[in-house]
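Class, carefully examine what follows:
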Amino acid sequence: MKQAAYMKKVGLLSVVGAVLMAGVPSPAAEDLVSRRQADMKAMAAAAKTISGMFKDPAGYKASEFKWAADTIRDKSGSVLSAHFTSGAANLQSKAGPQSKARPNILEERDRFDRIANDLRDYAVALDAAAQNNPGPMTASMRMKPGEAMGGGPFGTHVRNEQELLGMPAEHAFHLMLQACATCHARFRME
């Protein structure tokens, strides 16, 4: 009789433990969310560096501009997409409250991947601008007054690599920022 009661307690504790563990995000999911968030913070810091140089062209340093563009390039595209795969168990419902990713990333995979790749392409264009302008920031890197700034109804969404590399770096930067804003509006919880 005592053994049966003991077995019931052990069984009950096992069930309670299993239920509690199911609600806790796995360490692997937490690690992936942490890596993803670190990559996002690195891209934000890099974008801030580039933005500062456009605000104050006298502070332009080609090596820092290139480093910032390369940071964004290296953390976007397929790298960014891989942070949000269905097998990674890393979206809001599975990774816990520290993740701000919406589950619709999986439903709109093509759109998310396209934005991640656009981000990489804009960063590649910024890298090329830094390589082509090793001295001070040139007028060719800056947008002209009245030039459309992005993919809105009056802007440009560039899919052609030659056209992208031919536009002013500041325009590519604005397109990149627009890609970030579009992705956050669609796929990030506030």
